[in-house]
Amino acid sequence: MGNCGTREENAVVAAHAQLQQLHLLQHPVKNAVAERKHTRISSDMSDPSTPRKIEDAKNISIYNDVIDFTLFELETITKSFRADYVLGEGGFGTVYKGYIDENVRVGLKSLPVAVKVLNKDGHQGHREWLTEVRFLGQLRHPNLVKLIGYCCEDDHRLLVYEFMFRGSLENHLFRRTATPLPWATRMSIAFGAAKGLACLHNAERPIIYRDFKTSNILLDSDYTAKLSDFGLAKAGPEGDETHVSTRIMGTYGYAAPEYVMTGHLTARSDVYSFGVVLLELLTGRKSIDKSRPSREHSL
Ligand SMILES: Nc1ncnc2c1ncn2[C@@H]1O[C@H](COP(=O)(O)OP(=O)(O)OP(=O)(O)O)[C@@H](O)[C@H]1O
Ligand SMILES: [Mg+2]
């Protein structure tokens, strides 16, 4: 533990045969939940460096300890995705609480988990899922949420993470009922999240996270900050390249203006988003808050 970077292992996502049977849609679909909470940015330019084809799933190399769950197993641990097991809802799907142990599968360590069920929105949902398995499945760091497993059955795409007891930083900062976080905790959260980001940027092949924001910073029982949600992560520029050209994706209020204007992505785009979160931690104000007078909408 503590290392960060990608490692080649022989394990291949076992479900790739099922993946090939899928019919994928051509274009990303906007999601109503994301529109409600944060406004997602999504341009429709093509993006050659993101896994596009279903066959790409065959080439995934992941850690051996990432578990290939069956849908039945995940239905069992979430009581068929019961409403009172919901932890939260984001732009790409709903997150449920669950618990894995020997009763689910012989040999499993007892562990509380969070199960994200990705929306069935064709190509985009699969793409986010695949990106997350590819990146997070190979990364281990105390400031990155651990991917315990995944499920890929028919058109179902699910991700299983370690359960983070204190939920998202967003809830602690902005939920009306939340007790204000002490300064020392705020600073240690900023430091932890920065270490998570630095681990991505310093990897052998740097990774750009692209979705740094308070809802993607999760807190463990001792307030250790861990980055979650790698669906938009992107391999960084190589060699002489100064940037990667991508379709513009992220969240308004956090995405760097020059990236939104040009589609040129660099690690500095993440650093901009880090600055926004730091400002939110210091002021207790949201990056975009439409409930304020119009000239104060943007932090
Ligand atoms: N591993 C986890 N442990 C505990 N709670 C989690 C975990 N992962 C997600 N959650 C909860 O589920 C909520 C929804 O997460 P999700 O990543 O789907 O959406 P989001 O980050 O809120 O929004 P967006 O889709 O714009 O990223 C989070 O805000 C958090 O409260
Ligand atoms: Mg998220």
UniProtKB/TrEMBL annotation:
Pinpoint the Protein kinase domain residues: 81-299
**What InterPro entries does this protein's entry cite?**
Kinase-like_dom_sf (IPR011009), Plant_Ser_Thr_Prot_Kinase (IPR050823), Prot_kinase_dom (IPR000719), Protein_kinase_ATP_BS (IPR017441), Ser-Thr/Tyr_kinase_cat_dom (IPR001245), Ser/Thr_kinase_AS (IPR008271)
- Enumerate the UniProt keywords alphabetically: ATP-binding, Kinase, Nucleotide-binding, Serine/threonine-protein kinase, Transferase
* UniProt-annotated binding residues for ATP: 116
Q: Which PROSITE patterns match?
A: PROTEIN_KINASE_ATP, PROTEIN_KINASE_DOM, PROTEIN_KINASE_ST
Which E.C. number(s) belong to this protein? 2.7.11.1
GO molecular function of the protein, one example? protein serine/threonine kinase activity
Does the entry feature the keyword ATP-binding, yes or no? yes
Return the Pfam families for the record: PK_Tyr_Ser-Thr
Q: Per its UniProt record, what PANTHER family does this chain match?
A: OS01G0588500 PROTEIN-RELATED (PTHR45621)
Q: Which family does it belong to?
A: Belongs to the protein kinase superfamily.
What name does the UniProt record give this protein?
Answer: non-specific serine/threonine protein kinase
What organism does this protein naturally occur in?
Leersia perrieri
